[in-house]
Structures are given as structure tokens and as C-alpha cells.
Amino acid sequence: MGATTSGEIRAHNRVRLLRAVHDCGAGRTRSQLTRDLRLSRGTASVLVAGLAEDDLLHEEPAREHARGRPTQVPGPHPRGPLALAADVREDAWELAACELGGGTTVLELRPHDGTPDGALRPLGAAIAAHGRRLGHRVIGVGVALAGPVRHGGLVDIAHLGWRSVDVPGVLRSGASETPRPGDPEAPRPDGRGDQEAPPWRLGEGVPGVPVVGNDTAFAALAEARRGRLRGVRVGLHLHVDFDLGGVLVVDGLPLGGASGTGAEFGHMPLTVSDRLCPCGAIGCWGMDVGANALLRHVGLAYGGGRGRAQAEEVLATSEEAVAANARALGRGVAALVNAHDPEVVTLSGHGVELLERAGATLMDSCAPGLMAIRRDDPPPIEGSALGWRGALLGAMESVFDAFLTPEGLERWRENHPDQGHDTPDQRNVTHSTMKGAEPT
Ligand SMILES: [Zn+2]
Asked: What is the band of 263 on the pLDDT scale with cuts at 50, 70, 90?
């Protein structure tokens, strides 16, 4: 649908400008953005002023500028929109507040017992608490999970025995639990907060419905937006944690399948194995790559989301276990390259370390599996630029995708009285896995 009236054109340009600021990591100057978007200087100036007035954008002087007038860099407003993003792994979850441009603040990191209630109810409570504290700044919630996600919220995690877990439902039940003293959702000393209508509730319309997705698909989306798959037409992304997930990324979008469970290359029999996978299939590739396979290789107990620290120790010290992982990874990559002809193969999670520790073994295992027509110019296999943060950042992107629309911005204006703002701060964070280079 084309924008025709001046109001529609203005709304369209507001979205374009915010999208450009978000996608470039708030790293380009106003004049660069003006050129990128083919706006006139006057139009850009009016747009920036309007967006600043709505607490959507804030300009800072560029750190370096040539002679002449100082250059401004549009970025997130200090009272601007925040996406809450969570990465639920098999043994712990991490919750972060993410601003326009992709800047993230980890709010909480907690281990869990591997059950749906043990993992998701405290997360629901934390989301509700921070959502209430951050007020109208919260534009939505994205949640990454280590298993296939059907119909927007039903999750199976075979290793943990999760079958059709209604993730939004369990989060909501955790969110409705009574706040404990000292929690950020407890009534404020000034009496504000609970007396007012809660500004954010799970499951009650936009932005209350969490965007639930598969961790590999989210990691792939993040890689396409601000990592090594940016601008790549066909890419293959593999995420290695306790086991392995993989998805094809076409024109920047992970292929989700008919019901949303597409990111499951880990459950293909790509290596010669007759081991029964908890998913119910025999010989799944993911059984031979990741923390579980590392633990199994050295005779340690594995499964159920336990043993991360021991697996990291094995990864750092056992050449043999690492080589076995790398060989299995290489064989499977060859099969998928034969099938899909990707421009590049990217690895996240433990895949980055496997590549660093045993890249030659991985390549030696991959090469013989390639069809002759693929061997002259095989796609490069590269580590993610986003470290372990991909799943979290992908969850964030999904929230901003829903927000950065004319309707999303209009809703922000309507729901944005000039009161009750707070800023994200870190709570209960002793060790964040959000290491690695800053997103570009
Ligand atoms: Zn399987």
C-alpha cells in the first residue's frame, strides 16, 4: 500500500528513519541517514524534531567530525521504547532490556531446574516486574527457547521432556504471582504503580502477547540483521548449545516452515549414527554436536540441560572430544551445503569455539562430503559476529519489527503520557553470557 496523503507520507518516513537508526546500531550521522533515505535536509530536520518530541529519538554530537558544523548522530531516546528480550536455555534464562539501535542491558540471569514451571514462572514474574517498573517504555516481549515453537507459543524441548508447553500461558501464570517485598513490582513508596492500571500485562493485547521463537531461528535473524548474514541472499546458520539447531536464511528471513518449526536441521540423520534422539527420531545430527556430545565423549553424564560448566571444561581441554564434535559438524555442513547452496555458513554458540579450536578438522571433514560442483568454490564457514547474544538479539528484533510500523508508532503516541518512566538497571546478574563484539 503506497502512502499518498501528506500525513501518511510523514508516518511512513518516521518509520523509515527509525528503522534506519535501529538497523545501523545508531552509528550513522543525520546527514548520512538523510542521504541513505533520499530525504531533503529540511524534511529530515522536521522528522528528527518530531521524533525527539515523542521520546523516540535523541541526537548526540558525533565523536569526530570534520571542520564546519558539528554533526549529530540520531540514537535511542533516554525515555524511549524498550523491547524486553529473554533467552531461555536448557539450564538458565537471561532477560534484557533492548533499546532502539540494539543496545542491551541485562536485567536478570537465573538458573532453572529444567521444568516448564521452574523455568518460565520466575521469568514471567521478572518480565511483569520489569515491565511494570519500566512502564510505557516497554513495547513488547520476545522470548527465545531451545526447541521447536509451534503456532506462536507451543514449545517442545525433547531433552527436558517438554511436550506442547504453552509458553505464554506459563509466563502469564508466573506474572500474576504476588510480588515479594524488594522485587521491582512491589508498590512504590510514593504509592504510584499498583493504584494505576498496570501499564503492561502478559497476554492482554499488544504489546502484551510475547513473541515466542526458536533460539536458532532468532540467532539466525540477528545474524541477518547485524551480523555476518547481513546482505546475504541465501545463508545457512547453525547454533550450537547443548545440541545443534540449524536453519536456512533467505533474503534475511529464517525459513520457519508451515507451523513455525523449521529450524531443525539438528534432527536430520546427517552423520552415521543409530543413536535414539530424545525427539523420537534415530540418528539425529544434533546428538553428535554440542555440550551433550562433548560430555558423552569423555564419559560424563549428559542430558537434561545439566553439565554446562563441565562441557566448557571439555571444550577447553579435550582435543579428542573437540575433534569428534568438529568432524560431526563438518559432515553435516557438507550435506546441507549440497542441498541448499548457501553463500556462507555461520556458526553461533559453541560453534564459534569449535571453529576456533578445530577449524582445520572441521574443514577436512566437510570437504569430502561436498559434491564435486561445490568443491571449487565452497561457501566460507564463519563464526558469528554476535557471540552468544544472537538468540536474545533476534527476540529483540521481532519485537521492534512489530513496533516500527505507522500503527506501532501511533500506539506509542497514544499510550505515552509523560510520567512513570524508569530506566533499566541490572538486577541479580552475576555472570552474563553477553560477551563478544558490540553489534555493528
Ligand atoms: Zn532428534
From this structure: confident
